[in-house]
Amino acid sequence: GAGQDVGRSCILVSIAGKNVMLDCGMHMGYNDDRRFPDFSYITQNGRLTDFLDCVIISHFHLDHCGALPYFSEMVGYDGPIYMTHPTKAICPILLEDYRKITVDKKGETNFFTSQMIKDCMKKVVAVHLHQTVQVDEELEIKAYYAGHVLGAAMFQIKVGCESVVYTGDYNMTPDRHLGAAWIDKCRPDLLITESTYATTIRDSKRCRERDFLKKVHETVERGGKVLIPVFALGRAQELCILLETFWERMNLKAPIYFSTGLTEKANHYYKLFITWTNQKIRKTFVQRNMFEFKHIKAFDRAFADNPGPMVVFATPGMLHAGQSLQIFRKWAGNEKNMVIMPGYCVQGTVGHKILSGQRKLEMEGRQILEVKMQVEYMSFSAHADAKGIMQLIRQAEPSNVLLVHGEAKKMEFLKQKIEQEFHVSCFMPANGETTTILTNPCIPVDISLGLLKREAAIGPLPDAKKPKLMHGTLLMKDNSFRLVSPEQALKELGLVEHQLRFTCRVHIQDPRKEHETGLRVYNHLKGILKDYSVQHLPDGSITVESILIQATAHSEDQGTKVLLVSWTYQDEELGSYLTSLLKKGLPQSTP
Amino acid sequence: YRDLHTFELQAPTRLIEWTRGNRVCVAGYGQSDGNEILQLIPPPTLLTKETQGLCPERDFKVECGGFSERPVYSLKYVPDTSLLVTSGPPDSSLHVWQVSAEDSDVIKSVSTIATENGTGQSWAKIATISARAPWVLHGSRLDRVQITEVESRKNVYTAASRGSEELSSLAFLDCNTLLLCCATGRLCLADTRQPQSLVEAVSVPSVPCSEQWCMGTRHGAQGLEPSSQLVARLSSKGLLTLTDLRKTSEFLALAKARVPSPASVAEFLCVSWAPALEGYLAISGFDGTVHVYDTQNWDSSGREAEPVFIHKGHAFDGGGGSGDPPLVTVHTWHLQKPRTLLSAASDGSLHVWDWVQPCGKC
Fold it and tell me: One biological process GO term for this chain (chain B) (predicted)?
């Protein structure tokens, strides 16, 4: 999933023989099998444990972990599932919530059960930020801070010297309760990044917050009530901080409530995961509990009937059940009131219906509810835009980039932008498509000091523009690679060096005696080869450097002399040259 | 304000052009290479009549983008086509681009319209029209004005030469009439059916060479009779002249804008008429503000005029606070919503704002 598509993120990576599954999400737009990733790509039948070395979940949003219980319990996987501590704590809550809507509200049968969620979570291994986790002897993973939501992480997967970084969803600008994503210059072979918001130029946060506060303020000023359905965590904290600051500044008196259970849970989690929030919160938390607000109090069911203005944060977030729905039913009929939906609502929920414009809702017992209250929508979700994506690529310095989570036609421009700016290859596969990335593996080799010194002493110093060629012998033994001089290699291996000598016969016409021919050859070569050492030995043979030339008589023909030119393997070049030179014949007039 | 939205572009732009289908184009001008041309879909909030406070879609979307090898100083959409024409330094040649948003999100470079390269030529100013055929009017100097057919790149008209001053802008008043404005403030009318004649309009009041001028004509030359054309000229010292093209021998009005100091960088001077509000115009380019004026009560005295509204957002938003304060590089009016403007500044900010008529003038 998530190949040129938004929803049901699930990416399979094969790296150096290891298979890793990145995220296991659900597509929120479908009600049938299309809502889960298609695991038949991995294998047609049977359990997936044998095919996967591990599964990594980036964060608790359902489009990244929603299919996990289905995958592990209904399809079958018993291996390790890695995620950060906050993700491990929050995932089951959201999965259970979603299960309730799907099964209880919509009456579906082929869905995972509560027990399955529990069994699935037992397979989870929680990790800390920047902690290198050995999955097995060769495969290791490391989590980096991603911003976006509490506990969201980007993961580096490494086998030997090949690595992949998967970003999940991330955000490069800090907000009120989370910091910005960060990664070191890890230079992975591949960076897999989401590109949902690459084509968006976002309205500034200030403007959105200002409009949100304006709406809340207007409603409260005219005596109305504002309902904000939220999940237990995440954006709710952001909005609370925002309202608290505004209330303080404007000296407002209307009460703000946070529904019970929500406060405890939120505080509990944030205390547990204080390291996951941003710098500012951490500092303030030390002085006082950031989530104990002066103007925000715990809610009691009875308060919903109180007259006068108020603001209430209540769960669950899609108005599909529980307290938020109860409050909604009480307040819906009054046009002075307002409900602000903070995020995506799954089809079938009241939240989704009212956002689509429905104003007459059928409740249990065939009761019709007329919605007169104002319905507003606001999204504060934090994703990286084009600028953010470029920033992350600049930080990590990958050799290749792969884009997921965007729509096909709308990623071509970003692909070209990345390729032009960073001179790397950029891929954007569709669902089911396999992309192969070629890597340049590095093989470390130890070089013997003697060899290095010897080679370094010869000729000019090595230069980036003029690589030096050196000769040595590569010894591969017991998983170690060593480069040593040939002599040392022979010694270590107990081998004797063989010498290769080539001999070539050149026939020349010369009726004179051998030693005269020899003299002629000597003088000839001496005259031509001014840069070489040409010598005439007492026995009549001539040497050019280490090449030996001897003149002998032809066995049958007195007028022909045979020159034997002999050289070792190392002197091939000079030997060939001399041979061709002599084949041209000797000049006539030689003394 | 009735509404204010602030956005940040990855690179600052000095143009905001409306193109087909209510899209907006912006383009980078900073680097020598790798400048992006972006065609943006404005947020739905801008396209509806009602101003909505909270709306899921509040963002601009990049519909498609292209890469230009040179800075893009000017961009014009060629009406009734899917083509864009751009110009920019180092010379006065033009580039033609193809936008096919349905097929791909890349704006492709189609062709180049070359011009003779005189020495010291700067970039060409451009205007487009699709009357007999898609045409682009272009030139960097008064003696180098020509009209080229966009698709065939054939020259269809060359203006008679009356001097070699640099041009600050040009426009089609209709398919036969051209309006040329020089940086010195000199305004000329030309008729494409009579290549040799060039009618001078009235010059500007003072002629110290330090002042630079630009002009603004009412948007959408097609369809408006040339006789009802009011041309505004703005100088780098803040002087504004209004000229009626039927009576070019005199100024219709003369006023002084309330600017603290003359524009140091004359190239961002911009004056434009509101398409849906009679007599209103906006100016920018002096600092980080945009002024809106009601010219209906102006006379020829040259008195200082009081702006109806000043948009100061760019001056305040200045992110890091380091370096020079941002300078508004361009502004434009929304084509349908009467009081909505878009403005961009040198720090990459892009603002969309809707101002409220101050009470006294209702």
Answer: cytoplasmic microtubule organization
Measured from the Cβ of residue A380, the count of other Cβ atoms closer than 10 Å reads 17
List, in sequence order, every beta strand (DSSP E) within A45-189.
Answer: 54-56, 81-84, 124-127, 132-134, 139-145, 153-159, 162-166
CA-nearest of A140, A54, A13 to A437 is: A13
Q: Please indicate, yes or no, whether residues A325 and A395 belong to a single structural domain of this protein.
A: no
Q: Is B44:B102 a contact under the CB 8 Å cutoff? A: no
Q: Which residues of B touch A201 (CB under 8 A)?
A: 7-9, 40, 59-62, 350
State percent of chain A over pLDDT 90: 29
In a domain, A439, yes or no: no
Read off the pTM: 0.77
Tell whether A57 and A117 lie within a shared domain.
yes
Domain of residue B76 covers 3-50+57-354
Work out the angle at residue A576's Cα, subtended by the Cα atoms of residues A571 and A578, and round it to the nearest 5 degrees: 95
Task: Note if A194 is an active site residue.
Answer: yes
Boundary-marking domain end, from A377, A392, A408: A377
Distance from CA of A409 to the nearest CA of B (A): 5
Question: Which of B6, B53, B64 faces A214 most closely, judged by CB atoms?
Answer: B53
What span, in angstroms and rounded, lies between the C-alpha atoms of B112 and B115? 10
Tell me the C-alpha distance between A283 and A290, whole Å: 9
Query: A407 CB near a chain B CB, below 8 Å?
Result: no
Q: Which of A117-121, A230-234, B34-38, B79-83 has the lowest mean pLDDT?
A: A230-234
B359 located within any domain: no
> Which residues in chain B have Cβ-Cβ distances shorter than 8 Å to A386?
10, 62
Last residue of a domain, one of A377, A394, A409: A377
In a domain, B360, yes or no: no
Residues of A in contact with B61 (CB under 8 A): 199-201
Could you list the residue range(s) of the whole structural domain that residue A87 is in?
A: 11-201+382-427
Q: How far apart are CA B332 and CA B290, in angstroms?
A: 10
Number of structural domains chain A divides into: 4
Q: With contact defined as beta carbons under 8 Å apart, do B107 and B98 qualify?
A: yes
- d(CA B63, CA B41) in angstroms, rounded, equals 6
Does residue A64 belong to any structural domain of this protein?
yes
Q: For residue A172, what is the domain's CATH number?
A: 3.60.15.10
The answer to whether residue B361 is domain-embedded is: no
Number of folded domains that form chain B: 1
Taking the C-alpha atoms of residue B216 and residue B179, their distance in angstroms, rounded to an integer, is 10
Rounded Cα distance, B74 and B257, in Å:
25
CA-angle at B222, arms to B221 and B227, nearest 5°: 65
pLDDT (0 to 100) of residue B18: 93
CA-to-CA distance for A143 and A421, rounded, in angstroms?
A: 27
CATH no. for residue A517?
3.30.310
Alpha carbon separation from A539 to A51, A509, A547, A562 (Å, rounded): 76, 22, 15, 16
- The CATH number of residue B70's host domain is 2.130.10.10
The answer to whether B55 and B70 are in contact (CB under 8 A) is: no
Q: Do B6 and A204 touch (CB under 8 A)?
A: yes
pLDDT at B317: 58
Do A257 and A179 lie in a common domain? no
Pairing of strands A338-341, A225-229: parallel
d(CA A424, CA A118): 43
Q: Which residues pair with A298 in a beta bridge?
A: A258
* Chains A & B: contacts with CB separation below 8 Å: 78
Tallying the residues shown for chain A, one arrives at 591
Q: Is residue B123 part of a domain?
A: yes
What pLDDT is stored for residue A285 in this prediction? 54
User: Residue A149 and residue A170: Cα distance in Å, rounded?
Assistant: 8
Tell me which chain A residue has its CA closest to the CA of residue B35: A417
The catalytic residue among A162, A194, A209, A376 is A194
pLDDT of residue B322: 56
Residues A451 and A477 in one domain: yes
pLDDT for B184-208, tens place per residue? 888 888 888 887 767 676 666 554 4
